[in-house]
Amino acid sequence: MSTAKATNPLREGLLSRSAPEPCSLVIFGATGDLTHRKLVPALYNLAADGALPPSISVVGFARREKTDEQFRTELEEAARKFSRQKINDDLWANFSGGIYYHRSEFTNLEGYESLARRLDELDAQRGTRGNRLFYLSAGPDQFPVILENLRKSGLNQAREGSWSRVIVEKPFGIDLPSAIALNDMVEGSFAERDTFRIDHYLGKETAQNIMVLRFANAIFEQVWNARYLHHVQITASEPLGVEGRAGYYDKSGAMRDMVQNHLLQLLCLTAMEPPTDLTADAIRDEKVKVLRSLRPLTGPDVARHVVRARYAAGSVNGKDVVGYLDEANIPADSQTETYVALEAHIDNWRWAGVPFFIRVGKRLPKAATEIALHFKSVPPVLFAQTGDAIDDNVLVIRIQPDEGVSLRMSAKLPGSALRIEPVKMDFHYGTSFGKATPEAYERLLLDAMAGDATLFARRDEVEQAWKFVDAIRAAWDSGEGGPVVSYAAGTWGPDEADALVQASGATWRRL
Question: Are 242 and 209 contacting, i.e. CB atoms less than 8 angstroms apart?
Answer without folding.
Answer: no
